[in-house]
What we know:
The protein is α/β, with parallel strands linked by helices.
Amino acid sequence: MKILVVYYSRTGTTRKVAEEVSHLLRCGIEEVLDTKNRSGILGWLSAGRDAGSKGLTEIGETKRNPALYDVVIIGTPVWNGTVSAPIRTYITQYRDSFKNVAFFCTQEGTENRALREMESICGKKPIAQLELMRKQEVETGEYIDKVRQFTAEISNRTE
């Protein structure tokens, strides 16, 4: 099975999880690049506004064609309780190319519609999902066991 991890990360938290997933599954990885400047407080504010309005953004050209993979694992930070604009854009552009999907997200707050919305935008039921709390799990390293369970579930469903 060919597997690809695709992610967007504004602060590096989602990148950390994506790299661990890619390492454990020994698969390709691709970062979605947002052409909009999301740094600093103004970037944070525009990120929340764009996500809340369910807006799309312009993303950089991808290097890997998701149609060539059996499973595409998509990771996003949660912005304003929902999917980040770069990942919403990626899914919208490539949803017809996905054979199977799995989703993960990293978040600060308690409100999270991101995983449900990713499924809705994609039009496919994920084979696995993972939701992580940024400070409590990712920054402390506690996320590793959950990532192992997530990757094991993907491996079991793709054998």
